[in-house]
Structures are given as structure tokens and as C-alpha cells.
Amino acid sequence: MIKRQVIVVKTYCFKLYKAKRNRKLHKVINIAGIIYNHCIALHKRYYRLFKKSLNIYKLQKHLTKLKKIGKFSYFKEVGSQAIQDITQRIDRACKLFFRNLKHKIRTAPPSFKKIRKYKSFTLKQAGWKLLKDNVIEINK
Fold first, then answer.
1. Hey, which of 74, 95, 100, 115 has its CA 20 to 30 A from 106?
2. Every domain of the chain and the residues it spans
3. Residues 78, 84, 85, 86: is their CA dihedral positive or negative?
4. What is the pLDDT of residues 51-63, one digit of tens each?
């Protein structure tokens, strides 16, 4: 008899309306879009120079260095795990693109997104709290 372990993942999806109390969340989502586009630009530049895909760990290390520079200090408003999720999504998309190229399936590489159309970011462990009556508190 084979016993399988089942992992349960809870996902909450909320729609944010334009309200004063949601300004900070909208700002964080916009910064996540900027980070996404920055990572895409780095991937394209790296491929143009070295003809291979950028390693996810190098990319994450680069972003942590950028957060320490004054020009990019606003990256700190997005949680580190949310940034890691952005880099993981881009890495999966690049790997899928190169796999499809290898198997001669016609696809496009991951591309830039308009920041105003970037709609979400992921909070894995930190940055949120579940309160009574199914209320979620995000970043205080």
C-alpha cells in the first residue's frame, strides 16, 4: 500500500480599489513591475553578451546589491520573498522558452510588461497576517 503526502496550499485573491488606504499596496505592485522589467532587461543583455541564460542565483544576488544602492533603495518596499518569486517566474519562463527552441516549438521569449498592467505580487511567508473573520493584514 502506497501512502501519499498531500500538501495543501491556500491562495487568496483580492481586488484592490483606488482608495487612500490602498496606496501603499498599489505602490508595492508598481515597484514589483519595475523589478520584473529590470530582470527581463538583465536577462536580454546577458544573453546578448554571453549567448546563455542568466543564472537565477546571480540575478537574486544582483538585486540584493541593488537594494543597497541609493538609486534603487525603493526596492526594499517589496519583500525579499516577493522579489525571489519574481525572479523564479522569469527563470521558469526563460527555461521554457529555451526548451521550446530546442524542440523547435515556436514561442517568444519573456518580454517587458507595462507597469500599470502589472497586477500582482506574491507574499509567501512574511508580510501578511490572517486576523479574525477572514481579514488579512498586509504589511501593517
1. 115
2. 20-138
3. positive
4. 988 999 999 999 9
